[in-house]
């Protein structure tokens, strides 16, 4: 009982942030491997197509670009470099493992599952790579979780977590709106990256250690 009292937060994090996402990704991946259609994929894509208009096009294109080349990728690099410059080596190690590992995991999973992109209509931002899981979804939620976990034991945690949660949702929605990902690609990306990032956190900060504390 004393162990549970001292470790319940980390156990909860491991269950909610690692085991549940792994289970979710496994369920999605199993269906994709068997070429089974998800009942929610086509209706959500058709709804996105039905609401398309110029104003939405511009907004979702922006979030899609911020979710990768204009936002997440340069911010990832600056974050790791800033932590290294500040000599926050453990924090930088966590960020680096989470971010680089998530990107490599995405590349490997895309090749493994080789799922074709949706082709319901001609997208205004076409993609040529495989679809499952979404790289934008994985990259955005990895960055969000890295920042949230680093800030969680500070007074800034909700100032970081709330806007990053909204950002992750908008990036995911943008990929469906643009017709370049199935909703199941987004869910799988969120699940895989969440599990990886939480695993990296538990590895780099073991035994109840927290970011920003002296060694």
Automatic annotation (TrEMBL):
Localization, UniProt: Cell membrane
Membrane topology: Multi-pass membrane protein
Domain Phosphatidic acid phosphatase type 2/haloperoxidase: 92-201
GO MF terms, alphabetically ordered: undecaprenyl-diphosphatase activity
Keyword Cell membrane applies: yes
Primary localisation category: membrane
InterPro entries in the cross-refs: PAP2/HPO, PAP2/HPO_sf
Domain of life: Bacteria
Sorted UniProt keywords: Cell membrane, Hydrolase, Membrane, Transmembrane, Transmembrane helix
SUPFAM superfamilies: Acid phosphatase/Vanadium-dependent haloperoxidase
Record field: catalytic activity: di-trans,octa-cis-undecaprenyl diphosphate + H2O = di-trans,octa-cis-undecaprenyl phosphate + phosphate + H(+)
TM segment ranges: 67-86, 93-113, 133-152, 159-180, 186-205
GO cellular component: plasma membrane
Top class in the EC scheme: hydrolase
EC number: 3.6.1.27
PANTHER family to which the protein is assigned, alphabetical: DECAPRENYLPHOSPHORYL-5-PHOSPHORIBOSE PHOSPHATASE RV3807C-RELATED (PTHR14969:SF62), SPHINGOSINE-1-PHOSPHATE PHOSPHOHYDROLASE (PTHR14969)
Name listed for the protein in its UniProt record: undecaprenyl-diphosphate phosphatase
Organism of provenance: Thermomonas aquatica
């Amino acid at each position: 009982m004393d162990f549970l009292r001292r470790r319940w937060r980390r156990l909860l994090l491991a269950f909610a942030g690692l085991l549940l996402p792994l289970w979710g990704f496994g369920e999605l991946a199993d269906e994709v491997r068997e070429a089974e259609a998800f009942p929610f994929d086509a209706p959500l894509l058709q709804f996105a197509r039905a609401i398309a208009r110029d104003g939405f096009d511009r907004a979702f294109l922006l979030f899609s670009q911020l979710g990768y080349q204009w936002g997440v990728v340069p911010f990832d690099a600056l974050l790791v470099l800033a932590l290294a410059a500040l000599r926050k080596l453990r924090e930088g190690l966590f960020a680096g493992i989470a971010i680089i590992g998530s990107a490599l995991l995405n590349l490997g999973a895309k090749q493994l599952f080789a799922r074709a992109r949706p082709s319901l209509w001609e997208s205004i931002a076409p993609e040529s790579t495989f679809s499952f899981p979404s790289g934008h979804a994985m990259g955005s939620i990895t960055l969000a979780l890295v920042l949230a976990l680093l800030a969680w034991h500070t007074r800034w945690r909700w100032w970081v977590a709330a806007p990053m949660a909204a950002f992750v949702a908008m990036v995911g929605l943008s990929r469906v709106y643009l017709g370049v990902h199935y909703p199941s690609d987004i869910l799988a990306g969120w699940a895989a990256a969440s599990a990886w990032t939480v695993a990296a956190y538990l590895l780099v900060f073991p035994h109840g250690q927290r970011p920003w504390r002296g060694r």
